[in-house]
Design brief:
This is TldD/PmbA family protein. It holds the Pfam family PmbA_TldD_2nd. The chain is built from 9 helices and 23 strands. Helix 1 packs parallel to helix 2 and helix 3 packs parallel to helix 4. The termini are far apart. The strands form 4 sheets. Strands 1, 2, 3, 4, 5, 6 and 7 form a 7-stranded mixed beta sheet that branches. 48% of the residues are buried.
Length: 462
């Protein structure tokens, strides 16, 4: 896909021809595949390719962004001129000579998605279906799918940067539906990483399928959760979605630069309990949200957001740095060339603490153990959130007791940070897709188990 430097230089000069003070070009060639098994047989096999370029111009703090599928010299220069002439009236500038950044990756990839036999992939999905149905006769339907993406990108900007990267993503998912004594329930699970799909030869798909069935069956007999304020122990891995949504988005300069975040102006201030250290790390080998470089060509890094309760950094992209003066953190991300980049999280998690999960449970006389989090909604400006709990149990007299369903957690991110009194030593990360102004991107969330001293639980029971 590589476009020659002299063509990129001509396009960048065209972008600067009416007074823009910065321009960059993001070129993309992405192969994607989606396979699905339903009703115990292959249901769909969709393969696609995304090919194009996005050209971005800065006029001070204003952005002009255009896209094109024509990556010829004529096509790129025309698109760049259209962008320049739509806004600028100043004198022409010249881009700096392009200097290629050496391609260097910390990730290990195997067979490309188009190189691997499709029958092998359907064997994994069929195994999920068969293990699920064999687990319990109450299973009425199983949907299993495999999503793969292999992305090649080339980035050049008027400051002289030219860089290339390759990203591979693979994610297997399942939805299981059961009916028991007239009660219908469902449960879902997934497994994925930044990398290619041969990993599923080593993953215990039987165990994954059986866990999903057992959770769905548990929900058919569980009572409804109680409502009210109480201590809540939130499990590790996807439990970190609360920090990601209710706090992480408020730390992105996408919000901070607009003064639309509750965390504005709080650098160096204590915003969380001293047991809380939070990190946004793009450098984890084959991590779901990792990158070699971000979608602006900046090298990714490990960023400590909160250290012992004190706010240390925001999540900063190129424009966010211009608007706020904060150092770029290598966090400019986008779904594809169709979107201009914005400051986005990568692998975002609360770091491991010194407590144990068992001690947390023993500390609670009556409360809720949120073992598996579901979806929810958040107001990024205030951090107010409402999250469903997919699997939950009552804690009574320091012990995990009966399962309950229908629980949700209601709170405000900055308040919840201050009520985290214990953080376990068992850190785990989980995969998710994060949506924002620059589209949907792979982002990992995570934490050890945490104890929140008081949190509003929504439920039906008294």
């Amino acid at each position: 896909m590589l476009v020659q430097p002299h063509i990129l230089t001509k396009a960048l000069d065209a972008a600067l021809s009416t007074g823009a003070d910065f321009a960059d070009i993001f070129l993309e060639d992405t192969y994607s595949s989606q396979l699905t098994v339903l009703n115990s047989k292959p249901e769909q096999a969709i393969v696609g390719q995304l090919y194009g370029a996005g050209i971005r111009l800065f006029f001070g703090h204003e952005i002009v962004y255009v896209t094109t599928n024509d990556l010829s010299e004529t096509g790129l220069v025309k698109a760049a001129l259209n962008a320049a002439q739509s806004r600028g009236t100043g004198g022409a500038k010249k881009s700096m000579p392009l200097l290629q950044v050496p391609f260097d990756t910390i990730h290990t990839y195997g067979e490309k998605p188009w190189e691997m036999n499709r029958d092998r992939k359907f064997q994994w999905l069929n195994a999920i279906d068969q293990h699920s149905r064999a687990r319990n006769s109450a299973v009425t339907q199983v949907e299993a799918g495999l999503n793969e993406k292999f992305q090649r990108v080339q980035i050049a900007n008027s400051k002289g940067l030219m860089a290339y990267d390759e990203r591979a993503y693979s994610r297997i998912r399942m939805n299981t539906f059961v009916e028991h004594n007239g009660v219908k329930e469902s449960s879902s699970e997934d497994e994925g990483h930044m990398g290619t799909s041969e990993i599923y030869d080593q993953i215990n798909l039987k165990e994954l399928a059986e866990q999903t069935v057992d959770r769905a069956m548990m929900l058919t007999t569980a009572a409804y959760a109680p409502a009210g304020e109480m201590p809540v122990v939130i499990d590790n891995a996807f439990g970190g979605v609360i920090f990601h949504e209710a706090c992480g988005h408020g730390l992105e300069t996408t919000s901070v630069a607009k003064d639309a975040s509750v965390f504005c102006g709080k650098l160096g201030q204590k915003i969380a309990h001293e047991s809380v250290t939070a990190i946004d790390d793009g450098t984890i080998e084959n991590g779901w949200g990792s990158l070699n470089m971000d979608d602006e060509g900046n090298k990714t890094k490990k960023t400590t957001l909160i250290e012992n309760g004190v706010l240390k950094s925001y999540i900063v992209d190129e424009m966010g740095s211009r608007q706020t003066g904060y150092e770029i953190t290598g966090s400019g991300r986008r779904q594809s060339y169709k979107y201009a980049p914005a400051s986005r999280m990568r692998n975002t998690f609360i770091a491991a603490g010194k407590d144990t999960f068992e001690d947390m449970i023993r500390d609670v006389d009556y409360g809720l153990y949120a073992k598996k989090m579901g979806g929810g909604s958040v107001n990024p400006g205030t951090g107010d959130y409402n999250f469903q709990v997919g699997e939950a149990y009552i804690i009574r007299n320091g012990r995990i007791e009966e399962a309950v369903k229908g629980a949700c957690l209601i709170g405000r991110g900055i308040d919840t940070l201050g009520k985290i009194t214990k953080v376990s030593n068992d850190l785990k990360l989980a995969r998710g897709m994060c949506g924002s102004v620059s589209g949907s991107i792979p982002a990992a969330v995570g934490q050890p188990q945490i104890l929140v001293s008081s949190l509003m639980v929504g439920g039906r029971a008294k």
